[in-house]
Amino acid sequence: MKEFHEIRDPIHVFVKLADDEREVVNSRPFQRLRYIHQLALTYLVYPGATHRRFEHSLGVMELATRIFDVVTAPGNVPPELRELLPELTNSDHLRSWRKILRAAALTHDLGHLPFSHAAEKELLLPDCTHETLSAAHIGSPEMRRCWGAMKPEPRPADIVKLALGPAGAAELRPRRRLSAWETILADIIVGDAFGADRMDYLLRDSHHAGVAYGKFDHYRLVDTMRILPAAPVDEKEKDGPTRPVLGIEEGGLHSAEALLLARYFMYTQLYFHPVRRIYDLHLKEFLSAWLPQGRFSVDPAEHLLLTDNEVTAAISKAAGDPAAPGHDPARRIVRREHYRLLYERSPQDVAVNRAAGGLVFAALGRQFGRANFRHDRYTETSKPTEFPVRMRDGRISAATALSTPIANLPRLAVDSVYVEPRLRDRAQAWLDRRRAEIIRPPAQETDHDHAGHTP
């Protein structure tokens, strides 16, 4: 029997699967990912961006495996970490955890909703995320049969912890806690610094959208990744216990910088493209009107039956029927009659009032009717990405202390107002005349201004 199967991939050339892993790929939860677009309706702006979560998940498994093999190689493990992480010295444990890591990387996106992130937060129950659904599928009877056929057999609970990471696993009930070893493996897949999930989506989205912003030297980055003691970032941590985390050798620092810059540019140039964003808003409006009770079901069996295909067919039908739920946003998507960008965040306006977009939205709504405008706002709240770097002389330093680009990478933000196309010229002329009056320093705002501000 053939020991592995090869799948051609435009990013990684080949992705290799063992026989038992191919059964996971052939399962219904994984095959469903063939019909979930990676970038929602982005293909309406970038025609090549039609790739799916299916190939992305295969790519994440391939990259995560490469990272695991590098950081666990005997010559790459500092002696002091062998005591902190005994798993590194047990070859049987390493083989078992490698299998679990590959299974987790393969299944980390099983719970994605139609069109991925486009309409997730508002259309699921408050305590539910796509990670919740991923965990449910990983533990389902069908997937348990796949795990049972593997040798060594992974525990679904271990797969869930690595697939979701510390934040995702902590939100589950019962709450799941990760050991230091499990945290490192989870970071290999979904880590904020250089997890395989982030690496693959940047490379893959850039390739399919036809832009160069997401490219970086991932070969060099992976080859220089190591498990290292966390570098102290302030005086309080200097005498604290050693905490092993993912880091890099100094020779990979420029590759790490390139990854983080690639993420920044992909967001500013592609993910935050204003037409892409308004299509997400119209899609969310359609789903809210079309779905029963305006929300996605959290039942795994029902989740399996709903993909982009069913939503696309419903949008097409609703666009031609004025009486159908969600007709207006469906019509705007199908006929490209989406709301047009009228106002977007600018440094000058933010310097006057950080709530400038909300004030513009409220003022336009009072003048022309709120239904004729949409407000799109997002501000990144995370801190600068931090990880340890082992210098050529053996000392450990924090990445932000060594790298000006990493320490000073701007936070991502969107604050835009869109207008019904027929009103664009009138609304633009009105806004141009009153912009300074609308965007005033906070001390000059009145109670009336706050009443119209969108939280």
Uncertain runs = 446-455
Count all strands and give the number. Answer: 9
Structural class category:
alpha+beta
Quaternary structure classification = single chain
- Share of residues in helices: 40-55%
Taking the alpha carbons of the first and last residues, their distance comes to 60 Å
Spatial strand order of the main sheet:
3-4-7-8
Question: Brief overview, please?
Answer:
With about 450 residues, this protein is an alpha+beta fold. It has two domains: about 5-265, Hypothetical protein af1432 (Orthogonal Bundle), CATH 1.10.3210.10; about 340-455, Alpha-Beta Plaits, CATH 3.30.70. The protein has helices at about 20-25, 30, 55-70, 80-85, 90-105, 130-140, 140-150, 155-170, 180-190, 195-210, 220-225, 255-270, 275-290, 300-305, 310-320, 325-335, 345-350, 355-370, 400, 405, 425-440, 445-450; strands spanning about 5-10, 15-20, 225-230, 245-250, 340-345, 375-380, 390, 395-400, 415-420.
